[in-house]
């Protein structure tokens, strides 16, 4: 298989039986990282090629499809649903609601806390223009579960637009490069879903999946100075469903993630004014704690996180900017 042979080229391994993830693997940590890095590069190259071909061959169809979606779901034609969207009102009768509400409020509080004060252990690991990323090194049973907190400032989009594309499943395959399959196990309400998400295997690591609920919410209290609105998306692993892996072989990821976004306008301007995208700034706080399950070398995992998290945030925000540049502003 060409991709596998490409990935193992140059590795000094005596037995292929130990070329797998696990505590007994003889694959050195640096070679584990090199192999995963090569696999991720190949996945990203394939995705970039698919996007390029799609744009070349279907530009007019994509434009029409996006316009239809915007008129139906983004611009409030269904006023009853739109008025309730982001309030959680339609999910409150569900068995998961108490957990969803509690975790969302906890994560919002966590996202609003600063970093670097009071010796709380935050270390900056990426500083690239508007993107700043911090981590705290933590392990559970020998597995890296470093909490991450990232800050970004994005021009030309609103908080709701940013959260819309992070939340809605129909867009996820266009910006999440490692995604193989995203199954909606239950649509609890328009702003709350239960997902089983399967990721592509990146050799020599085992294939992984995640079972989690996702909730998008508009925040109406405690807005930062200068913010005209705040939206969040919170994802959290759950045992509510006992859904097995699609192929029966995946290692399950356990995660808690929040993307908190605020819209800022120039001084003196309001949402009721005639605005252009030049007037919009979205301030993003992204927090995650991910237990990847299984086993992988700590140093290799941290090296992969350091490389992949900034790329993810830049790729996702660029995707949203591109999707919204010719569309009506959505608050």
Could you walk me through the main structural features you see in this protein, from its secondary elements to its overall organization?
- It is a single chain.
- Helix content is 35%, strand content 27%.
- The chain is globular, with a radius of gyration of 21 Å.
- It is of the alpha+beta class and 331 residues long.
- A hairpin with a 2-residue loop joins β1 and β2.
- Mean pLDDT comes to 81
Question: The biggest beta sheet, please?
Answer: 9 strands, mixed
List the helices and strands in order.
HHHHEEEEEHHEEEEEEH
Structural class determined from secondary elements = alpha+beta
**Strand share of the residues?**
25-35%
Task: Give the terminus-to-terminus CA distance.
Answer: 48 Å
Helical segment count: 7
Taking all Cα atoms into account, the compactness measure Rg is 21 Å
| Assembly status | single chain
Secondary structure: helix percent: 25-40%
Categorize the overall geometry: globular
- The beta-strand count equals 11
- What are the low-pLDDT stretches, counting only 5+ consecutive residues below 50? 1-19, 58-77
């Amino acid at each position: 298989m060409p991709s596998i042979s490409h990935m193992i080229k140059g590795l000094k391994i005596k037995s292929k039986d130990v070329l797998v993830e696990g505590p007994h693997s003889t694959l050195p940590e640096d070679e584990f990282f090199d192999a995963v890095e090569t696999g991720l590069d190949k996945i990203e190259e394939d995705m970039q090629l698919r996007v390029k071909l799609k744009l070349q061959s279907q530009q007019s169809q994509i434009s029409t499809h996006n316009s239809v979606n915007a008129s139906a779901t983004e611009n409030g034609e269904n006023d009853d649903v739109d008025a309730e969207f982001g309030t959680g009102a339609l999910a409150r009768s569900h068995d998961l609601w108490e957990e969803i509400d509690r975790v969302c409020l906890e994560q919002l509080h966590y996202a609003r806390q600063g970093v670097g004060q009071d010796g709380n252990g935050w270390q900056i690991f990426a500083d690239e223009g508007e993107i700043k990323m911090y981590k705290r090194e933590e392990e559970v049973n020998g597995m890296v579960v470093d909490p991450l907190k990232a800050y970004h400032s994005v021009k030309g989009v609103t908080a709701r637009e940013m959260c819309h594309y992070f939340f809605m499943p129909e867009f996820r395959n266009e910006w999440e490069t490692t995604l193989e399959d995203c199954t909606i196990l239950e649509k609890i309400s328009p702003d709350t879903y239960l997902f089983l998400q399967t990721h592509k295997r990146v050799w020599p690591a085992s294939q992984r999946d995640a079972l989690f609920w996702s909730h998008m919410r508009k925040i109406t209290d405690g807005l930062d100075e200068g913010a005209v609105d705040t939206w969040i998306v919170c994802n959290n692993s759950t045992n509510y469903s006992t859904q097995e892996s699609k192929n029966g072989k995946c290692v399950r990821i356990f995660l808690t993630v929040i993307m908190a976004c605020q819209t800022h306008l120039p001084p003196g301007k309001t949402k009721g004014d005639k605005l252009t995208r030049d007037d919009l700034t979205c301030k993003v706080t992204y927090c995650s704690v991910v237990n990847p399950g299984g086993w992988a070398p700590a140093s290799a995992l941290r090296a992969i996180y350091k490389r992949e998290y900034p790329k993810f945030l830049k790729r996702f925000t660029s995707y949203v900017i591109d999707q919204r540049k010719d569309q009506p502003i959505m608050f």
